[in-house]
Amino acid sequence: MTKEIRIHQTGGPSVMQLENCEAREPGPNELLIRHVAIGVNYIDTYHRSGLYPVPLPSGLGLEASGIVEAMGSEVSGFRTGDRVAYGSGPLGAYAETNIVPAGRVAKLPDEVSHEQAAAIMLKGMTAHYLLKETYPVQRGETILFHAAAGGVGLLVCQWARDLGVTLIGTASTQEKCDLALKMGATHMINYTTEDVVARVRDITNGQGVPVVYDGVGKDTFEMSLDCLKPRGLLASFGNASGPVTGVDLGILTQKGSLYVTRPSLGHYTATDDALAANTADVFDAVARGALTITINQRHALADAVKAHEMLESRQTTGASILIP
């Protein structure tokens, strides 16, 4: 038997239940991984709430690290006992074990711990595709990133500094602003007390920024557009405040022939080769000290409800993990 967090209906955090489930054997190209640490990400709340529908009943979680316990007959390149991690599913990471296609798993370098890997795989890959693929930032540019003190945000702050990019971040408290500044943000805006658009225009001498990375969604959509320079790009990659709906495309013309994209990690790591290249760059950044993983919330697997409650109420900074 193995313990798993399961949902039988969508809804608030309380729909998650810790259950004893039958252990499974890996298929020919799969690995059975016994988890050491499990990542908690905002997308998990979308699966739980039904915003991103999944077949029910279902497990939750896309990211974890652990030890290879068994492998399928056609797997090569791995051995039992290997330290590994994954960050793009399949669903079911909120569990003591999970079965994962071998091509979606990365071996951990010695310099990366299990907790670090569980906290950085999905968030680090997200930071990578946003900064290097969705809009490849260039040294000397100024960018805007909402929720800069969150799990992805703190990584983006550090990576932007490493790339020679000026990052303007937003956050809800002075404590969060100070944390993001410490981790590499150049300017921080407390959106509860300051006018974000006015501050961005002031920092950029009235020009605006070429790109806004927005994981907040509904509450910041128009604000983000107003911070862009003409022909700028809004990368709306999350819905922390709810999804953006009912958009009149004419607004993009009115605000400067703007571009909007709704990217997802799955499309940027759809092939095993793309996934391997992304994770290799993330681990390299960790190994050379460009990225430091900030884990500020640790919960037992049985306390997944509390982890989601804290995440959705914006009580967290940095990364959250579950320990099975």
From TrEMBL:
Pfam families, A to Z: ADH_N, ADH_zinc_N
NADP in keyword set: yes
GO MF annotation list: mRNA 3'-UTR AU-rich region binding; NADPH binding; quinone reductase (NADPH) activity; zinc ion binding
InterPro entries: ADH-like_C, ADH-like_N, ER, GroES-like_sf, NAD(P)-bd_dom_sf, QOR-like, Quin_OxRdtase/zeta-crystal_CS
The protein's name in its UniProt record: Alcohol dehydrogenase, zinc-binding domain protein
Alphabetical UniProt keywords: NADP, Oxidoreductase
GO CC annotations on file: cytosol
Gene3D superfamilies: Medium-chain alcohol dehydrogenases, catalytic domain (3.90.180.10), NAD(P)-binding Rossmann-like Domain (3.40.50.720)
Domain Enoyl reductase (ER): start-end pairs: 11-322
